[in-house]
Design a protein that fits this description.
It holds the Pfam family Glycos_transf_2. The chain is of the alpha/beta class. The protein is 50% helix and 17% strand. The radius of gyration is 24 Å and the shape is globular.
């Protein structure tokens, strides 16, 4: 059986660190925690789990801190987490099975990262990340912000899911780092341009976000999933700015890079639904229902677009087209995914009454 080092970088995580470590401490053979300048009880909590708590001066460089943490690992494999991540009980069982059965030929194991969950704990947004890597391979982190772990060799895509559960609002820390680099004249890589644009988008600086997304796309060197995402983000920027035509243009531009994604189809469906072009809207929502959600996609996946949302919107489209039976059928399909959604329950009640009235009318007419 392989041995595992858990490597983490932390700063002022007293509210969540114990929760994270409680979920994984029994699964790993060593815990290495690198603190980048905590002023709360983070290091005290960390020392209750491991003696290997190491200080590292913060330099606005996440990769430097993560590579430092990896350099202190001594086990066969390195597993990394953030302090606001947890491994639920059912995923702990999967992880232990993986640990007992993993072949030493595997260089990296990817896991699903559940970025957000609904009120019932179901994942609504996810991405896949390299999480468990062979120490002897010497894999390195790259990028000062939104860092990535560069791996190669034999990679295993597991179905283990790590849950991200932050307990505080996102800060402007990453945006400030990018702005500082920009002011210093640093040349951004295509990846930097994309993630800088994302930060601008998240801070509702839509005009600047469009500028840097377009710079990213113009490099023609971006990862295809990022290119598709960038087109969608620009469409959302223009939508927020009230420019519907440009929003449509960029939504359609995403098809230049690969086959349609459900997110793009739903975005187009929404565009036509807002314009009351119900048959066109239904076309795009229907296409979204025909696509299969990728199980091993490395891009960000918004689960609603691949499951219940297009059915719910098809219900709306068919309702306004007077095709109530079809509207009801799609609402029932949406209900299979989100049985307690207020819109689903409202539609169900409304459509049942309409269909009952139609049935009564036809019976009376026939008699």
């Amino acid at each position: 059986m392989i041995t595992i080092s858990l490597c983490m970088i932390v700063k002022n995580e007293e509210d969540v660190l114990a929760r994270c470590l409680d979920s994984v401490q029994h699964l790993v053979d060593e815990i290495v925690i690198v603190d980048t300048g905590s002023t709360d009880r983070t290091k005290e909590i960390a020392r209750s789990y491991t003696a290997r708590v190491i200080d590292f001066p913060w330099s606005d460089d996440f990769s430097a801190a993560r590579n430092f943490s990896f350099s202190h690992a001594t086990m066969d494999y390195i597993f990394w987490l953030d302090a606001d991540d947890i491994l639920p009980a059912e995923e702990q069982t999967k992880f232990l099975t993986l640990k007992r059965t993993l072949s030493s030929d595997i260089d990296s194991v990817t896991m699903i990262y559940s970025l957000a969950q609904d009120e019932y704990g179901k994942t609504i947004s996810s991405v896949r990340r390299n999480r468990l890597v062979k120490r002897s391979s010497g894999f390195r982190w790259h990028g000062m912000v939104h860092e990535y772990l560069e791996v190669w060799g034999t990679i295993l895509n597991s179905d283990i899911t790590i849950i991200h559960q932050p307990n505080r609002c996102a800060s402007d820390r990453n945006l400030q780092i990018y702005e500082k680099q920009l002011a210093q004249g640093k040349e951004f890589s295509p990846r930097d341009l994309f993630y800088f644009a994302n930060e601008l988008f998240d801070h509702q600086q839509y005009e600047r976000a469009i500028q840097y997304y377009e710079q990213f796309l113009q490099t023609k060197k971006g990862w295809v999933e990022d290119c598709i995402a960038a087109c969608g983000k620009v469409a959302d920027c223009f939508d927020a700015l009230g420019d519907e035509e440009q929003a449509l243009r960029y939504a359609l531009r995403s098809f230049e890079y690969d086959t349609p994604r459900a997110e793009c189809c739903c975005r187009l469906g929404y565009y036509f639904l807002q314009r009351k072009q119900y048959r066109l809207a239904a076309f795009w929502y229907h296409l979204a229902t025909q696509l299969t959600m990728p199980s091993d996609s490395w891009g960000f996946v918004h689960h609603a677009c691949w499951t219940w949302l297009p059915h719910l919107q098809l219900c709306v489209c068919y309702f306004y087209m007077g095709e109530y039976e079809l509207a009801y059928q799609h609402n029932e399909k949406a209900k299979q995914y989100v049985p307690h959604h207020p819109a689903v329950l409202h539609n169900e009640c409304l459509l049942q009454s309409i269909l009952a009235a139609e049935s009564t009318f036809h019976q009376t007419d026939e008699s």
